[in-house]
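Thread: Newbie trying to understand structure tokens

Hi all, I'm a second-year student working on a class project, and my supervisor (Dr. K.) asked me to get a predicted structure for one chain before our next meeting. I've only ever worked with sequences, so writing a 3D structure as a token string is new to me. If someone could post the tokens and maybe explain what I'm looking at, I'd be very grateful. Here's the chain:
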Amino acid sequence: RSTVAGEMAHVGSLMIMLIGSLLLYSKGYLIESLLLGGMNILVNLYPIFLMRYNRFRIAGVLGQSIQELLS
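---
Reply by user tm_fold:
Sure, no problem. This is what the structure looks like when written as tokens:
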């Protein structure tokens, strides 16, 4: 369950940083927009995928479905 809460926090942060990156791009700050986008992938998108991957692995090791693991 804690992975779901962490994932949701990263999704919220991902959206905020995506909006910031798009605003920078619309103002003509291409390099800054690309840097923020790259940071966003490293800091938010990668952990989201990692948490999902780990959840599936844990469920497999325990012989449970994802729904059973989260309940």
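A couple of things are worth pointing out once you decode it. Residues 7 and 48 are 5 Å apart (CA to CA). The helical segments are 2-26, 30-62, 66-70. Feel free to ask follow-ups in this thread.
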